[in-house]
């Protein structure tokens, strides 16, 4: 049986533990006995089935539509003959549903998908509340769930999230990089403007400590109202006292709306975004003037310069970006998460020689890999695998994200 590719030069703070766990799992792995994920003999089509609940409409559509596109592109890039899983070759099938950005609908869809023996893994939730609604379903049905949303609570506490994995970077890592970026821009007094909800909560917890470590004063924290409400009052509170900069911790479309409100309130200093802002919507149309010159921390998938490398991961990234632009006319750095989710699942099935849900879970939590969005290093005690070294610093220059570090 094939063993996972492992590059010792790519070891990170979690790489050693992950490599050891992976080695033990591989040693214990047996051959697939031509059975499906339920343990019965596989007499039907030989498939790996991903059940996806995505925000294709509603507030999260700016993020969810990107993931649907990425899933289709990543599946089409696989061999048409399927991937080797034990003694079989299995094709990948996607069962994608629109949760309309509604956590309750997402939970119902997840339960329907998980209740089918033909579905092996759940993927989805670009909004934190939507992913959190799917977490309980995944644990109850003991089916692996790969979340595409920010929010550290998705995978913690680890003892209650044994089947749940998160691909987006941790809030503490993003905040740490933001603190360093703010320091380099000589902003000494800043305000945190955090969106309502669970993602905003993560920023409220992570940013103060990161700013202290960077020697930056946090003047105050202001929370945005729920999406769709006026941000005017929150923006006016944020700019009171003329801070050197404002950290906007939120996902699109709130990010662009917050930037416009800050400019209307008189803030002419820098705006610093977390990774949730980096989609086309933030730079588009009425947001363009307000966000010009703004900064963001985001995984390396946003930077075109990384595509000139010739490593296997860089070539895969280049191929994905080419396919995405060819089909959709532009590229968003947030898009690759779902493509990485599919690749992680396929690799887990290949290494395990099975699509049994329990075995997929075991191999998902032992993967060290370079994806399209960035590097991942899962361990049994940590299921949020995006590495801090995968993050870069960017600025908006003439309507485009440009990497500065």
Automatic annotation (TrEMBL):
The lineage of its organism: Bacteria, Bacillati, Actinomycetota, Actinomycetes, Micromonosporales. Keywords: Signal. It comes from the Bacteria. Residues 48-384 form the Leucine-binding protein domain. Belongs to the leucine-binding protein family. InterPro entries: BCAA_transport (IPR051010), Leu-bd (IPR028081), Peripla_BP_I (IPR028082). Pfam families: Peripla_BP_6 (PF13458). Gene3D superfamilies: 3.40.50.2300. This is ABC transporter substrate-binding protein.
């Amino acid at each position: 049986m094939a063993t996972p590719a492992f590059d010792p030069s790519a070891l990170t703070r979690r790489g050693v533990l992950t490599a050891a766990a992976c080695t033990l799992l591989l040693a214990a792995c047996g051959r697939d006995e031509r059975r499906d994920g339920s343990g019965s003999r596989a007499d039907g089509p030989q498939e790996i089935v991903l059940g996806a609940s995505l925000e294709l409409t509603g507030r999260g559509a700016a993020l969810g539509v990107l993931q649907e596109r990425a899933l289709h592109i990543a599946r089409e890039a696989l061999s048409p003959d399927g991937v080797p899983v034990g003694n079989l070759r299995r094709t990948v099938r996607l069962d994608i549903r629109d949760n309309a950005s509604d956590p309750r609908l997402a939970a119902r869809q997840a339960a329907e998908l998980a209740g089918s023996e033909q579905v092996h893994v759940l993927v989805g939730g670009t909004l934190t509340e939507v992913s959190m609604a799917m977490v309980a379903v995944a644990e109850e049905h003991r089916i692996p769930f790969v979340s595409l949303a920010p929010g550290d609570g998705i995978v913690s506490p680890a003892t209650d999230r044994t089947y749940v994995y998160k691909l987006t970077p941790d809030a503490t890592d993003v905040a740490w990089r933001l603190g360093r970026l703010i320091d380099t821009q000589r902003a000494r007094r800043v305000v945190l403007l955090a969106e309502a909800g669970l993602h905003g909560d993560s920023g409220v917890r992570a940013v103060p400590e990161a700013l202290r470590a960077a020697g930056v004063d946090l003047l105050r924290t202001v929370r945005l109202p729920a999406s769709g409400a006026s941000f005017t009052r929150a923006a006016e509170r944020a700019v009171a006292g003329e801070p050197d900069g404002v950290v906007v911790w939120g996902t699109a479309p709130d990010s662009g709306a917050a930037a416009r409100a800050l400019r209307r309130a008189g803030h002419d200093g820098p705006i610093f975004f977390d990774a949730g802002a980096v989609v086309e919507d933030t730079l588009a149309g009425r947001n363009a003037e307000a966000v010009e010159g703004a900064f963001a921390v985001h995984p390396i998938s946003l930077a075109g310069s990384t595509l000139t490398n010739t490593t296997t991961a860089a070539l895969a990234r280049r191929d994905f970006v080419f396919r995405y632009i060819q089909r959709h006319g532009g590229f968003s750095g947030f898009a690759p998460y779902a493509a990485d989710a599919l690749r992680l699942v396929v690799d887990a099935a290949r290494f395990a020689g099975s699509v049994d849900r329990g075995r997929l879970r075991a191999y998902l939590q032992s993967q060290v890999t370079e994806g399209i969005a960035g590097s991942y290093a899962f361990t049994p005690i940590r299921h949020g695998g995006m590495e801090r070294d995968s993050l870069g610093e960017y600025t908006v220059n003439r309507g485009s994200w440009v990497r500065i570090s």
